[in-house]
Specification:
Elements: E1 4-8, H1 20-29, E2 34-41, H2 55-68, E3 73-81, H3 87-94, E4 101-105, E5 108-109, E6 112-113, H4 125-142, E7 147-148, H5 155-161, H6 167-173, H7 175-183, E8 187-191, H8 206-214, E9 220-223, H9 236-246
Parallel strand pairs: 1-2, 2-3, 3-4, 4-7, 7-8, 8-9
Antiparallel strand pairs: 5-6
Helix pairs in contact: 1-2, 4-7, 6-8
The structure holds zinc ion (ZN) (2 copies).
């Protein structure tokens, strides 16, 4: 696994104003060999990001970062928010756009955004996770994803709503998704933003990753999910040590 931060946003994401040149500079100063810019691509009308991404502006920003830091591997990517119901729109968007790393994520279910508490109103965990699994399997079988973003991001909310469901339980619930990740050679993201959002382990947890390894998973990548330059490579050193001890 090269020393790259695989999940960083630019002002082509509606929730980020940080110039990628600035993030690349921080990545270089912190000893990374490269950085990958994965901007949000959204289709659900409930999402503020719909229609925000601008391919021309994105390429200009990336060219700017590459020009300033020629020694750095500046990679292109998307954080594509997968929803089966927008499959046609997604395919149309991707037509003619080549990137180095396409990160698939599941941000929405029928009842809302997975990091909104109200999404879980009047739902059991089983009911929610069934829908999440269906969407995730649809993403993985679409063949578009190189990586799968922040596996148990929903845990930020589900830990409060369903306190009896632990992060390890999620592994058992999501068995089919894990199998599909492995079958389709999709890289499982170790997303360190969890560590700045109140959790003491990344998305997914270390025990989750131990199970994943035991079940034959070996494709992982690290991403900080930075929206600000200061978060680039956030707590990578300690996480890399853990990753090496699990995936040696
Ligand atoms: Zn995301
Ligand atoms: Zn992100």
């Amino acid at each position: 696994m090269p020393a790259i931060d695989w999940h960083v946003h630019t002002p082509c994401s509606c929730d980020c104003i940080t110039d990628p040149a600035e993030s690349t500079h921080v990545a270089m100063n912190r000893g990374l060999k490269g950085i990958c810019f994965t901007d949000h691509v959204d289709f659900d009308p409930r999402d503020d990001g719909v229609g925000f991404f601008n391919w021309k502006m994105y390429n200009e920003l990336i060219d700017g970062a590459r020009g300033k830091f020629p020694g750095m591997h500046v990679k292109t990517g998307f954080e594509l928010n997968w929803q089966e119901e927008f499959k046609k729109e997604i395919e149309a968007f991707l037509e003619g756009k080549q990137v180095d790393f396409l990160l698939g994520s599941v941000h929405w279910v029928s009842t809302g955004f997975i990091n909104d508490r109200t999404t879980y109103d009047d739902r059991t965990f089983d009911d929610f996770i069934d829908e999440w699994i269906k969407e995730s399997l649809s993403l993985l079988s679409s063949g578009i994803a190189d990586g799968f973003a922040h596996f148990d991001y929903f845990y930020l909310q589900t830990r409060h709503v369903y306190p009896s469901i632990s992060r390890e339980d999620i592994y058992d619930y999501a068995g089919e998704v894990i199998e599909s990740l492995i079958t389709h050679d999709v890289s499982l993201e170790i997303n360190t933003s969890a560590l700045r959002k109140g959790l003491d382990e990344p998305f997914p947890s270390w025990n989750f990753l131990r199970h994943f390894r035991k079940d034959g998973g070996n494709l992982v990548h690290l991403g900080s999910d930075s929206h600000e330059a200061r978060h680039v490579k956030f707590r990578f050193d300690e996480c890399l040590k853990m990753v090496k001890s699990i995936f040696h």
